[in-house]
Amino acid sequence: MGDSGRDASRDDGISFIVTVGATDRKCVITRDALKSLCLDDSDEIQPKAIFWENEDRIYRVARRLINAGAWDSPLILEPRYFSERLSQ
Q1: What is the pTM of this model?
Q2: How far is CA 39 from its chain centroid?
Q3: Pure H helices in 5-83
Q4: Are 67 and 86 in contact (CB under 8 A)?
Q5: How far apart (Å, rounded) are the C-alpha atoms in residues 60 and 32?
Q6: Quick check: 3 and 23 in contact, CB under 8 A?
Q7: How many Å apart are CA 39 and CA 49, to the nearest integer?
Q8: CB 30 within 8 A of CB 13
Q9: How far apart are the C-alpha atoms of 23 and 12, rounded to whole Å?
Q10: What are the CA-CA distances from residue 43 to residues 13, 21, 32 (Å)?
Q11: Are the beta carbons of 3 and 17 closer than 8 angstroms?
């Protein structure tokens, strides 16, 4: 993706920056949301690997939420935002 400013892994997920228009927004995808994106049912997940494998989808969902008026800072991406209905 063309966005810059990706942050390191955090205990509560992965933080990253999304640029929408001329504005940078800090976002965090929770571990539960990452786990929901993982095809492996194992309890042991690799958050960074899941993030990179799903990076386009994660950024797309974050942009959609921001464009829809989500103003939380940081914007927290939870599993519910990755249902088929919202992320197609």
Answers
A1: 0.78
A2: 16
A3: 31-37, 47-53, 55-67
A4: no
A5: 18
A6: no
A7: 12
A8: yes
A9: 24
A10: 15, 38, 11
A11: yes
> 19-78 pLDDT, tens per residue?
999 999 999 999 999 999 987 666 677 899 999 999 999 999 999 999 999 988 899 999
- What is the token pair recorded at 13? 């997920």
Are the C-beta atoms of 26 and 70 separated by less than 8 Å? Answer: no
Those residues whose C-beta lies under 8 Å from the C-beta of residue 88, and which sit 6 or more positions away, are none
- Name the percent of the chain in helix, strand, coil, to the closest 5: 40, 25, 35
Residue 12 token pair: 């509560």
Residue 3 token pair: 């966005």
Tokens 């933080």: give the residue: 15
| pLDDT higher than threshold 90 for residue 84 | no
